[in-house]
Structure formats: structure tokens, C-alpha cells
Amino acid sequence: MSTSIEDSSRAPSTDKTFQLGNLLNVNLSGHLHKLANTMIARHGAPKPPKPPGISLLAEASRKLAASGGDLELLTPRERKAAIELFWDRRHGWEATLEDVKRWLAWASLEWGSRIGIARIAMSYLRNFDPSSEATREVGDWLAPRVSEISGPFGEFIRRYGLQHWRDAVDRVSSTLASGDQSFLQDAASDVRCQVISNGSGFLVALVAAVGRMCGTGKVQNADQLAKTLMGHLREHGLSGARGSEDMRNQARQHMVTGIVRGASRHGNPASSEAALDIALTLAGDPRVSIAQWRDIEEDVREDVESWLTARTLENLFRVINELKTDRPDMWEARRDFWRSYLPYTKRAYLLCGDRAVRIAERLKEPYGRLSNADKSHCGILMQIVSPEGSRITAIEMNMNGAALFWTRGSGSAPDFFRKNGYDRAVMKESSDHWKPHTGNWQFSFSQLIESETGIRYSPSRGRNG
């Protein structure tokens, strides 16, 4: 009985203590929440931790190069920053596998705290490259230690198995391809997780993997996923992302190839338009510069150039409509006529007088400057090529201007994709045929094209294109 009385006498005190503790927790939580909101209002939302600065890495690299990789000569800050030098070789010191192992042995003894392991994991993901010995060694070092990383970042790594460098990319890319974008949402949810979505090497590897899958037709909403991934590369795109140059080149090659072939297979105009935008973002306009297209197969480039030609033709009519220099019904007939030759039109380039330039730039359409022409003049330079390789070059102009033609034997046809130098008077003088749009002009034009290329005019190809 005495025990019961004693217990009952303690109960009120315990309850009061418990209630007081709850009250303090609530008040403290509310105070911290208010303080956090105040800090965000003053300084903005928290930003992902930045990698070590260039000067710090340069000094660490200098000491390591001079000493043969002696970590003891580094300051504590330099020693912690040195992990970035396993991948970043711009500063003059190239780490060997033994250097990586030696640094990880030091980290096990001196920097094995939760914070240290988290920082090492961030460097690993930021510079991720599965072909790199450093990535493999650091990933294997992290594998038994990620359980010690606390908070959302630790949960993020463990949930997706990011420490497992052998299969992490394939696993995450397969999930994304199925339509589940939880990974990207989680990557944006915490400042440390954002190391992924800030142009990381891991993201570059994902771009390459998803690109390969796009080519097989196994990606749901492929163009949307590709654009989302590209958005996470930020304004500098692949060229400004982490990872080796080889890995970035592979990502460009695989994504361009996969997204273009996937869109070509579906034959959906919206998919083709989206794929074209992605290809241009990653590799540029192949008509203007072939530099980023040399390692991409020819059939892919031909598809892109075909889409670009169709876009240029449509943009010509958008420019004409805005200039309001011609009757719409007249241009509908011309548009239908030239659309019918799109399957054989290998090149097309917009030519602009002064007023047309502003419209072309807004449409982001490459153009050449017309000279000796009215300010409202514009046109399109086209090359039509038969399957056998016979070709004819033509210029169609607005303001009821005649079309100009250069036959296959002509050596005076204008070059494509110059920025300047399209003198209207000179082109008219050098042309082999000057044909006005009078009478049954479609018959006259098509007869000339057929005589030079063997391509027969098919009006149905140009309608509702």
C-alpha cells in the first residue's frame, strides 16, 4: 500500500514535468520555425554547400605535386578539399589510385564523422564517373558508411543506393523511364540533395543512360523527361557540368541519338519538334556547325536537318504573315507547293531584309542578310536533291518576287548559311532561271525541277502539312 501511495504522489509531479516539457518543445519549435522564416526572408532560401574554391584547390594541388602526394604538408582545410582533385585535374596534380586510397585511409581516421562522410558523399556524386578509379574507390569506401549520414541527404542516398556506383545509374534511369520522377523531386527537396540537380556528374551519367533508353522506345514521355534532365544541367548545359569530357560527350551523343530516333519512330509532329529542340540545345545546328555532330550517326543528323528544313519553311511564312506584304491566299499556294518538296529538300536558309530580321531573331531562326533589297523583303534559299543525288537550288521571295533557280551544272549558286552577302541583284543576275508567279506557275516550276532531278510534283504532299 505504501508503494501505491508513493507512486500516486509522484504522478502529479511527473505529469506536470511532462506537460512543461511539451510546452517548452512547442515554444522552442515555434521559435525556431519563426527564426528560420526570418532568415529566409533576409538572406533567401538555403543554398547547396559549395565545392572548395579554386584558390584552395590550386594551393593543395601545388603542394601535392611538389611532394609526390604527401598529405602531411597540407593544412586541414586543404586536406579535406583534396578529394575534389581526384577528378578535377585542371590544377596540375593527377591523383593515382594509391593517392586515393591513402586519402581515404586518412579520412577513415580523421574525418569519419557524420559531417565528414556526408561531405565525401557530396564530392562523389558531384564528380561521379563510373569509368573513374576514384569514383569506384570512393563509392566502395562509402558503401558501409552511408548509414551514418543523418537527415534527408542520408535517406536520399540510402533510398536510391547511390553509393553503389556499379548499378545506381541504371536503377535510377529505369525508374525515371517508367514515369516515376520521385528521384528528381527528392533531389530538389534538400540543399545537400541538390548536389545532384546542380550539373553533377551523376546527372550527366543519367542523361546518357536515359538517352540510350529513348532510342529503344522504353521511356514514357521521353521528350518531357529529357527536357527535365536538361533543365537540371542549368544554363551552361552539358558543357558546364561535372564529369569527364568523355562522359559529357557520351551523354550528348546518346541523348541526341536516342531522342531523335525515338521521335522518328513515332512520327508525331509534337515529339519531333521537342526532339529537335533538345538536339539543338545539346549539339547546335548541324547546318551551321558540324563540330558537335561528328560522332553522331548520319541518319540522326539527316532527320534533324529534315526537321530544320520544315521549320525554316514554316518560319518563312510566319515572317511574311507578320510583314503583311502579300495576300494570304497567294502565299497559301506557294506554301503548299514548296511543302510538297520537303521530303527532298536537304537544305533551307531564311534570307531577310531589315524588317524581317527582328522577326527571325524572335523566332530563333538562323538567317542571312539580304542586300540591294527592300526592307520588307524576305525569302528562302533551298536545295532540292533526288535520291540519286541530282540537285537544283532555288530562292523563293515575297512581295510577288520571282523565284530564282540554279541548275545542277551551275557553279554560281549561292552558298548556304552565310550571315551576309546575299545581294539580290547579284543573285538574280547569276541565276539560270528567273520564273514569275503568273499563270500556271506550279506547272512551270515543277517541270524545271523534274527535268533537273527527276522528282515529280505531287500536290497532295504539300497540303495540310
TrEMBL record:
Superkingdom, natural source: Bacteria
A Pfam family that the UniProt record links to this protein: EH_Signature
Domain Zorya protein ZorC EH: 36-447
InterPro entries (UniProt xref): ZorC_EH_Signature_dom
Record's protein name: Zorya protein ZorC EH domain-containing protein
